[in-house]
């Protein structure tokens, strides 16, 4: 809403994403998730901070605490991440609430990024649910989510391995689809090299 009346918002996801320098080391701990609100897909930023210290605590904003605890436990048990002696802070930027499981992979990626002190490259997004075995599972409307990423200029999307081929068949030449079966494959694909 402006003084002249309603105005079109061409990229509603833009208000939920960080406007920082994409080459900054400060970006360790930030990951982009694609969520649905009705029939529209939005990009949101998940922020994580792993801080070693004498007290181990967890603070969560915008993510269900039980879901965050489950993802942290799976990262420790199934991916071998030694984060048990870290305080973990999770936040969804701009006060958004992440209510669907499609953001699980972004939460895990943000935690890994902060813990490993390895910024996620600019233009990478994550879509997928995490199971108790560390497996990456598909979520509804994958094609719509990936198409939104391609339109907004993202160049890589990490998705469940089970939908990798069907998403590549969309012929979205602007975006590379990276399929991962589990969290270990996620870590190898994003945080190695």
Automatic annotation (TrEMBL):
GO biological process: recombinational repair
Organism of derivation: Arabidopsis lyrata subsp. lyrata
Protein name (database record): Lon proteolytic domain-containing protein
Lineage of producing organism: Eukaryota, Viridiplantae, Streptophyta, Embryophyta, Tracheophyta
InterPro entries hit by this protein: Ribosomal_Su5_D2-typ_SF, Ribsml_uS5_D2-typ_fold_subgr
């Amino acid at each position: 809403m402006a003084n002249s009346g309603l105005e079109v918002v061409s990229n509603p996801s833009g208000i939920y994403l960080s406007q920082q320098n994409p080459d900054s080391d400060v970006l360790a701990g930030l990951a982009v998730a694609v969520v649905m609100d009705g029939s529209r897909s939005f990009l949101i930023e998940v922020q994580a901070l792993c801080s070693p210290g004498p007290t181990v605590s967890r603070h969560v904003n915008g993510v269900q605490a039980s879901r965050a605890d489950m993802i942290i436990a799976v990262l420790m048990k199934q991916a071998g991440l030694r984060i048990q002696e870290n305080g973990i802070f999770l936040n969804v930027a701009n006060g958004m609430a992440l209510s669907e499981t499609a953001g699980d992979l972004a939460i895990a990626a943000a935690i890994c990024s902060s813990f490993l002190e390895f910024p996620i490259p600019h233009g990478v997004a994550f879509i997928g649910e995490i199971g108790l075995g560390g497996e990456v599972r598909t979520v509804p409307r994958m094609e719509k989510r990936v198409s939104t990423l391609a339109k907004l200029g993202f160049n890589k999307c990490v998705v469940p391995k089970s939908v990798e081929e069907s998403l590549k068949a969309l012929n979205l030449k602007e975006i590379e689809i990276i399929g991962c079966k589990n969290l270990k494959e996620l870590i190898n694909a994003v945080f190695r090299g």
